[in-house]
Amino acid sequence: MKFGKLPGIEGVDFSLPPLNERSLALLGGQAHDHFEMFVGLSRWASKEWVGHLYPKGTKQVDYLAHYSKAYNTIELNSTHYRSPSIDQVKKWRDMAAPGFRFCPKIPQSISHYRKLMNISEELTLFVDAIAHFEESLGCSFVQLHDSFSPALFTNLAHFLAQWPTGFPLAVEFRHPDWFADRQLIPAACDLLEKHGIASVITDVAGRRDVSHSSLTSKIAMIRFVGNELHPTDFSRSQAWLERIALWRQQGLESLYLFPHEPGDMMASDLADFWIKEVNKQFGQRIAGSSGAAAGGQMALF
Prior knowledge:
Helix 7 (153-162) packs parallel to helix 8 (186-195) and helix 9 packs parallel to helix 10. Strand 1, helix 2 and strand 2 (73-76) form a beta-alpha-beta unit. By secondary structure, the chain is of the alpha/beta class. The protein has helices at 21-27, 63-70, 78-81, 86-95, 108-113, 120-130, 153-162, 186-195, 231-250, 264-282, 288-293; strands at 36-41, 73-76, 101-104, 140-143, 169-172, 179-180, 183-184, 198-203, 219-225, 254-260.
């Protein structure tokens, strides 16, 4: 992910934003009985993982089946470039392991080219397709273009009014004017809360404003951009784990975490670090690459 990347990270303040009192009030102050955490990458089609994440000799057609034994979600970026067909969605769904969640990205024809306006036909096509993920559908997300500022607030409101209920959705804001003191501006929070829509948190070195702490639903999504497994990748991860633990105690119901690194092997290594801590701290049973190599049978770390 190139957004917010820097040639060097010297001098970057990686501290988390302060807790958002509005978000804590939204969560309700009581832990949910069935908190779930999902950790995954942004692709499954990597030859580098054969012999590591995938057994030696694995064919590309079987990558997803093996990937879904290691991680329990995917940031499905391919749908950003083209809305999938119903047949394609059914194929992906049937290949994935039980409990796996797909998080499809809204097509750029909707989010970027049309700026969320005059998109009824494209939106219907997309929603009709992803509905066939059935219980494997996680939280979809719409990434607003860098130039999509609060001046286009009406566009966003119109889009969210069209988004169907029962389909979890998160919005990733990028234009700096959506943020003030590393929080989403109140108007954005009001709109998302009204529709029960989550806000994407993007932790990246070059844009500290977008690593905000404004939760707008009881679902959270974090896109975490590392720096070639620099020590700060792990200290930042630990800080987020502490924040997530607090949110969980306050009432957060589910969280999707997508680690990004410049290379596929580094991305899986960082994801495995997260998984080890998530399993230990939150009682999850995500396998990770070592568990997948053992056939997907993984006890808690």
